Amino acid sequence: MIYELTKAAHIVSVIVFLSGMAIVEMFLRYPNANTLPAIQNFDRYVTTPAMLLTWALGILLGVLGGWFEVGGGFWFGLKILLVLILSALHGMITGRLRRKVREGNFDPDSATRTALPIGFGLVVVIVLLVTTKAI
After folding, report:
1. How far apart are CA 5 and CA 60, in angstroms?
2. Rg (Cα) of the chain, in Å, rounded?
3. Residues 36 and 27 sit within 8 Å (Cβ to Cβ)
4. DSSP the chain
5. CB 60 within 8 A of CB 9
6. Range 58-74 burial, b when 16+ CB lie within 10 A, else e
7. Tens-digit pLDDT profile for residues 26-53
8. What CA–CA distance (Å, rounded) separates 12 from 26?
9. CA distance 75 to 129
10. 3-state DSSP of 86-116
11. For residues 100 and 84, what is the distance between their CA atoms, to the nearest angstrom?
12. Cα 72–74–79 angle (5° rounding)?
């Protein structure tokens, strides 16, 4: 029962984390002086804690499920690598948001244009790995 509750909480925190990333990315594409500081607060108090909770619950699931033991599967190591990349992508996006707010630069940010599709692509592969444990 603890595993199932942890898994449900993990899924909810993943949804909040990914939604927050998508919101920040969209506002970086079409920024304005009124919304970026609010989005920065949203990221600081909602998205980043959701990412940290996702990591904590994911590690707990790995421990409860025995995935960290020898022979946990190549899929699990690959999933961890992809989640690290997704977390780094969040760090990049958050850094760009912080810089825009600090500098007062409200020009559209073309550098994050590829962040959203990359993030969604990572999520698709992660979900496939977790649900099929194919590799």
Report:
1. 11
2. 16
3. yes
4. -HHHHHHHHHHHHHHHHHHHHHHHHHHHHS--TTTHHHHHHHIIIIIHHHHHHHHHHHHHHHHHHTTTSTT--HHHHHHHHHHHHHHHHHHHHHHHHHHHHHHT--S--GGGGGHHHHHHHHHHHHHHHHHH---
5. no
6. bebbbeeeebeeeeeee
7. 888 888 888 889 999 999 999 999 999 9
8. 21
9. 6
10. HHHHHHHHHHHHHHHHHHCCCCCCHHHHHHH
11. 24
12. 95
Specify whether the CB–CB gap between 34 and 71 falls below 8 A: no
CB hemisphere CA count around 77 (13 angstroms): 7
For 78-100, the pLDDT digits (tens) are: 999 999 999 999 999 999 999 98
As given in the structure block, the two tokens for residue 7 are 């898994």
> For residue 19, what are the contacts with CB-CB under 8 A and spacing of at least 6?
none
118 HSE (CA, 13 A, CB side): 16
Sign for the pseudo-dihedral over CA of 86, 122, 75, 63: positive
- Ordered by start, the domain boundaries in the chain are 2-132
What are the CA-CA distances from residue 52 to residues 1, 45, 71, 100 (Å)?
A: 23, 11, 26, 24
- pTM here is 0.89
